[in-house]
Specification:
InterPro entries: Lon_proteolytic, Ribosomal_Su5_D2-typ_SF, Ribsml_uS5_D2-typ_fold_subgr. This is Lon proteolytic domain-containing protein. GO terms for molecular function: ATP-dependent peptidase activity; serine-type endopeptidase activity. With 263 residues, this protein is α/β, with parallel strands linked by helices. It has a domain of 184 residues: 2-Layer Sandwich (Ribosomal Protein S5, domain 2). It has eight helices and twelve strands. It has a six-stranded mixed sheet with strand order 6-1-5-8-11-12. Strands 2-3 form a two-stranded antiparallel sheet. Strand 11, helix 7 and strand 12 form a beta-alpha-beta unit.
Length: 263
């Protein structure tokens, strides 16, 4: 004979699977990555003891100031991220919760992603070299540029590579430095004809830039809103769409003349 459950007993019995489901949801892996500000590197100098930009076949000028490419660090494609970590990350100022597909758009395991990022970096370096030499009306037949940046993958350093090449070969075009002696940071992809593209994670990159001394940050124009949302105090945001425009803005800042756009 079946006995009738009291209301309290029934609620208790029903609560057990609900609690189990909530516990599962809290600890179950979710398709997100947790990102934070990463390392920066001065493309005009050395990184891990190796010169980032080496040029032969043309006179290379000495430079002052810094041009720092910026990165983010994110949990790997095989790392489990729980609901509790996601909730915690939403309220943290120095972290961001990003869809895993946005961080690793090609998918795959860690080894495959590292290979993909390495390939993207090589393509970015080739495009950056072509864009810079094209801006200076030089050819790679006569000028050889070697770019080395350890432990960094992807295409987002393209703009800074191009600016570094231009600064080493021509500066601001009239004997001065593109940086004006400042620490300038930034991010953005580059095409061979000098078009600057969006990269993602710019809010975190502004934090990395300011942490490492930058006072100016070059940001793809389409990502101005994201950059402003987490902009640290003391960091000026300059939107760019082309290599030529980025150089014009830096020259205007260096000389204190002309219009400099802002986000």
């Amino acid at each position: 004979m079946l006995s009738r459950l009291t209301r309290l007993q029934a609620l208790t019995v029903c609560a057990v699977p609900v609690v189990a489901l909530l516990a599962t949801a809290v600890f179950a892996p979710l398709p997100f990555s947790i990102a934070q500000p990463g390392m920066t590197a001065d493309v005009l100098g050395k990184n891990q003891g190796t010169q980032v930009i080496t040029i032969s076949g043309a006179p290379v000028r000495g430079t002052s100031g810094q041009l720092r490419m910026t990165t983010i660090e994110a949990t790997g494609p095989d790392t489990d991220v729980s609901l509790s970590q996601v909730i915690d990350g939403w309220f943290a100022k120095d972290r961001a919760i990003m869809p895993r597909d946005a961080v690793y758009p090609g998918g795959g395991n860690t080894k495959e992603i590292e290979q993909h990022n390495t390939e993207q970096m090589k393509q970015s370096q080739d495009a950056a070299t072509e864009a810079a030499l094209g801006y200076l009306h030089l050819t790679d037949k006569n000028v050889k540029v070697t770019l080395k940046l350890a432990d960094v993958g992807g295409p987002s350093a393209g703009l800074l590579f191009s600016l570094g090449i231009v600064d080493k070969l021509d500066g601001n075009g009239s004997g001065g430095d593109l940086t004006g002696g400042r620490t300038v940071a930034g991010t953005g992809t580059i095409t061979a004809d000098g078009q600057v593209g969006a990269v993602g994670g710019v809010g975190l990159k502004t934090q990395a830039a300011r942490r490492d001394g930058a006072t100016v940050f070059l940001v793809p124009k389409d990502e101005c809103a994201d950059a402003k949302s987490q902009r640290p105090a003391g960091l000026r945001l300059v939107p760019v769409t082309t290599l030529k425009g980025a150089i014009s803005s830096l020259v205007a800042l260096e000389k204190g003349k002309g219009s400099v756009p802002s986000c």
